[in-house]
Amino acid sequence: MSRPGDADSSITRASGHLHRFLTEAWRLQPLYVSLYAILLSLLIGGVLISLIGVNPLTAYWALLRGMVGDGERLAGSLARSVPFIGSALALALPFRAGLFNIGAEGQLLAGGLTAAYVGALSWMSDLPGGIAIPLIIIAGTMGGAVWGGIPGVLRTKTGAHEVISTIMLNSVVLFAARWMVGSRDPVVLRDTESTVPRTDPISDTAVLPELVDSQPVLHTGLFALLGLCFVVAFMLNRTNFGFEIATVGLNPHAAHYSGMNVNRVIVLAMAAAGACAGLAAASEISGTNGHFQPGTFFLMGFDGIAIALLARTKPVAVIAAALLWGSMLSGAPLMQQEADMSIDVVRIIQALVLLFVAADAVVRYLFRVHEQGQSPFRATSVEGAA
Amino acid sequence: MQNRFLSILALLLGAVLVAAGCGNDDDSPASVQAVDTQQAPTATEAATPDASGTMSEALISLEEECEAWGGIQAPDGFRANMVTDIGKVDDGTFNEFAYEGLLAAAECFGIDSTGVIETASEADYTANLSTSASEDPDVLITVGFLIGTDTLEAALENPDINYIGVDQFQPEYPPNYVGVLFNEHEGGFIAGALAASLSETGVVGVVGGVEIPPVVKFLNGYEAGAKYINPDIQVLKVYNESFGDPAKGASDAQQFIGEGADVVFGAGGPTGSGGIKAAAEAGAYAIGVDQDEYYTTFDGGDAPGSENLASSAIKRVDLSVFRNIAEAVQGTFSGGAYTLTVDNLGITYAPFHDADVSAEAATRNNRACPARQRRRSRRCGSSPYAGGMASSPRLASSAAAVAIPGAISATHH
User: CB–CB of A209/A227 below 8 Å?
Assistant: First the structure.
């Protein structure tokens, strides 16, 4: 893809230095494309901003200060990013098995709803925090796992493609959740004392401990989700189940002939994906919101897909991508307030990043990055290449 | 493993579907807009007295309101900030009207520093409020009932900032927090009175949204208004499962027309708008709600059927924001509920625009309520039917007073 021959030699040399630095200092070689895609998108975003008549440096400076301006803002950005880790893992994990889980949005809602329901049960307040907190987290994780497992089962039993069924299940749980939380007659899960539609507040004993009193609050759910990334990475790379997932992803027929239970792997991979999203939702319910309100998860699952793609579906890289994504969203309001620049600019930049990650040939050509193995997002299929 | 691009396409499609399903967000990454360059035609413009000549009384412009405040000026360094509900400052909802109120107040009182944050997700409410408050504004406007709880907390936390919360009911308000509320039943009453005046068949309809208090108030007010003009009128009412279903609204409207209705009022967000659009296209009169739907649903007269949009029952969110900023500028800001009513011109009706509703002929409306009487006492005719929610006859009759400014008569077309 890349054509280094006709390159301007100074650019080649400069990017060569940069590559070496990144490779040796950071071991970021597999992420070149993502990093350059971000750079390129910021440049194009800057052009857009100046076209509108705002100084891009002013806008980006406000954006940067909104992201990491002081300790509290940094904590707020971290807090905003935490749930994205879970929703991104929900894509990254089954991706290894060749499954495209678009259902994180719904799995977050299912997990959040379950967590909020369990958290608000009357006997929860009698339990010590040491039991109540794991309970609410496990409940949310299970809720997500069940909702994620369903498309897995549908795939294996009926052949329904998971892309379709997860999209449909997103709608099912979204409208079901809205009804359960919003309905006054009959009251299902609605907190009837609240003016806004949401569930009863969870028990005080089920609230995750707070780390920093930022907006939103940074809580210990951070550790749960950071840990989850390493667990998923370990599972995918070092366990038998991970090997099965990879095998099924590369060639389900080969996996079948070698004696693996492909159906079981598919169902479990999807359920595990749902569990990741469910855990993220439970941590939000328990640490940030204290109740369930469907709108707080709006687009969180879909952004997770983007983040996972940006991290090239590597579980540990998801952390960095989620931090970038969440802190951009968290910094954008300051940019709007100070530079009068719509938050949409951030969305455009994010979309451009994804575009360049997907169409990585552009980035490879511009920055002279040599191809490192097959991109997982090529339209030309693996089978076709083989 | 095939066709990843297809899959990505599918996921984008899914995102769009969900966004559309939520019906409250329009942050497609493809649209760039500078915050204050693009403006849809504003309520302010709409307020210019039109041919009917009687508009100015019911629909005052923000310029007129500005004059009423006698040229007070904000002190140096006065700052007014705003945090929207999910959406944009030009999305044709309360966000836009609150923003117009803010802009007009900034111009009127010489406020040179304003800042706006457009909320993209419910997860951002608290963060946006604190970002906005970090600039130490004198006034902070927040829009929408969903952000109400967070606004209340912020108001308690920052006693030096005056909060104006549009559409936010609290059982108790701290002294630095005003919640803007609406007498929807009065708007409904106006629409009902207008509908009954226009109707020749003696049957009018209303397409409601979800059966929640504001919608119930609209519908009961509508029935009361219609019966106030014509006690024998038949009022067809329907509630819906959703605010976001224009197709259902349209089929409701067609159903009504099939049953003989010749005026349809839509009081249920996009569902209601779908209803009035269908009604107008089918040749029945339509009445919009919340804002002048001539500019939104009917594209400023470009959409088919706009000649049948008689009017809209408007909530003057812009006016409420303007007035409360003025109070803050003047140093008389005090917390509590600020209810928009017909009396304070916060609930009113839009110009007739292209509709063939003439102001000339005095009609049975005038007989019901002579002009000089309505000026003074706001009480005229017999005590009107007050409906389930319109419990106070005084409110209901004052609504009638505005509905009736010698104006509404149907000239046939």
Answer: no
Look up the CATH number of domain B185-314+360-406.
3.40.50.2300
Q: Provide the shortest C-alpha distance from residue B154 to chain A (in Å).
A: 12
State yes or no: ipTM above 0.85: no
Chain B residue at shortest CA distance from A285? B123
Looking at beta carbons, which residues of chain A come within 8 Å of B36?
340
Collapsing DSSP states into helix, strand and coil, what is residue B182? Answer: strand
Q: Which two tokens stand for residue B113?
A: 């520093």
Query: Cα separation of A206 and A131, whole Å?
Result: 8
The answer to whether B131 contacts A171, with C-beta atoms less than 8 Å apart, is no
Paired tokens of A13: 């040399």
Same fold, B50-182+317-340 and B185-314+360-406: yes
Q: If pLDDT is split at 50, 70 and 90, which confidence band does A22 have?
A: low
Q: Which residues are B163's β-sheet partners?
A: B140, B177
Q: Is the pLDDT of residue A115 over 70?
A: yes
Residue A201, domain extent? 81-309
Query: Is the residue at A11 inside a domain?
Result: no
In-domain check, residue A377: no
Instruction: Please tell me what DSSP assigns to residue B383.
Output: P
Question: Could you tell me which residues come within 8 angstroms of residue B400 by beta carbon, excluding any fewer than 6 positions away?
Answer: B189, B190, B193, B225, B228, B368, B369, B380, B381, B384
Q: What is the pLDDT of residues A319-346, one digit of tens each?
A: 999 999 999 999 999 999 998 888 889 9
Digit-coded pLDDT (tens) for B130-176:
999 999 999 999 999 889 999 999 999 999 999 999 999 999 999 99
**Would you give the DSSP letter of residue B371?**
H
Note the pTM of the prediction, 2 decimals: 0.77
Q: Name residue, tokens 């409360």.
A: B324
Asked whether residue A2 is domain-assigned, the answer is no
Does domain B50-182+317-340 bear CATH number 3.30.565.10?
no
Q: Which residues of A touch B88 (CB under 8 A)?
A: 342
Residue B126 contacts residue A216 (beta carbons within 8 Å): yes
State the average pLDDT for chain B.
Answer: 77
How many residues are listed for chain A in this entry?
A: 386
Please check whether residue B10 touches A, CB under 8 A: yes
Contacts with B14 from chain A: Cβ below 8 Å: 102, 167, 170, 302
A204-242 in b/e form (b: 16+ CB < 10 A) is: ebbbbeebbebbbbbbebbebbeebbeebbebbeeeeeb
Overall domain count for chain A: 1
Domain edges within chain B: 50-182+317-340, 185-314+360-406
What's the rounded Cα separation, in Å, for the pair A334 and A73? Answer: 10
d(CA A299, CA A325): 12
Q: Which residue has the tokens 């309360």?
A: B94
Q: What is the pLDDT of residues B294-353, one digit of tens each?
A: 988 898 888 899 999 999 999 999 999 999 999 999 999 999 999 999 999 999 988 888
Separation between Cα atoms, residue B322 and residue B334, nearest integer Å: 14
Q: Record the tokens describing residue A143, joined without a space.
A: 């809720």
